[in-house]
Amino acid sequence: MTFGSGMIRVMPQNVQVGSVTASFCNVRLPIGLVLDRIEIEGQDAELHTDPLHLELPEPGNVRVFVGAESLEKYLNEQAPGGLRDFQVRLVPGAIEVQATARVIVELRATATCKLRIEHGRELHVELMSVDVLGGSAKSLVESQLDKINPILDAREYPVQLELHSVEITSEAVIVTGTLAP
Q1: Pairing mode, strands 94-102 and 60-66
Q2: CA 46 from chain center: how many Å?
Q3: What residues of the chain score a pLDDT lower than 50?
Q4: Element (H, E) at 57
Q5: Whole-angstrom distance, CA of residue 171 vs CA of residue 25
Q6: Contacts of 120 (CB under 8 A, 6+ apart)
Q7: CA atoms within 13 A of residue 29's CA, in its CB half-sphere
Q8: Between the CA atoms of 43, 48, 53 and 56, what dihedral angle is there, to the nearest 10 degrees?
Q9: Res 139: pLDDT
Q10: Alpha-carbon distance 167 to 69, whole Å?
């Protein structure tokens, strides 16, 4: 194909790629949670140009990072159970969430939770402890968690994702898994 005095090369419809590393930042899920970063790695990929898509012959590795600020913003937007003024702090192995509840008076509560994976597809919040003005409201918080779990179900997304592990550091919640070809 020629254009003016030069040549334009048309890219072949399929391109072989030895390895792929992709990073997506600030990904908003349909539920409203913003993932700070998603990293995908794969080998022996094939890039198709019409329509543009990437095909992996083997499962690729996925790592998802969500920071305390993203979790806090999401909880404040959703206001689950009528709670408000959420503050989130990540500590190794746990998520500490403070929120205000209005019963007859306003109460400030702190819940410490961990995350667990079920069936390789669902991410659940599990309550470790809750403290309300020195008292306990564990059963009340657990009933609220029963209504929202699983907080993530990989079957609801247009990719086949299997979850393998979840780690909570002081910087982020890190979920790892594989992306099916």
Answers
A1: unpaired
A2: 26
A3: 1-3
A4: none
A5: 16
A6: 154, 162, 163, 164, 177
A7: 21
A8: -20
A9: 72
A10: 17
pLDDT value at residue 2: 43
For the chain, the C-alpha Rg in angstroms (whole number) is: 22
Token pair for residue 180?
A: 């099916």
Q: Are 170 and 91 in contact (CB under 8 A)?
A: yes
Distance of alpha carbon 141 from its chain centroid, rounded?
A: 22
Strands 173-179 and 6-7: unpaired
3-class secondary structure, 67: coil
Within a 13 Å sphere around the CA of 46, how many CA atoms are in the beta-carbon half? 10
Question: What is the identity of the amino acid at 81?
Answer: G
Q: Enumerate residues 6+ apart whose C-beta is below 8 A from 10.
A: 1
Residues near 146 by beta carbon (within 8 Å), at least 6 away in sequence: none
Task: Provide the residue count of the chain.
Answer: 181
What pLDDT score was predicted for residue 143? 75
pLDDT at position 5? 54
Reduced to 3 states, what is the DSSP secondary structure of residue 150? Answer: coil
pLDDT at position 1: 41
Q: Which amino acid is at 111?
A: A
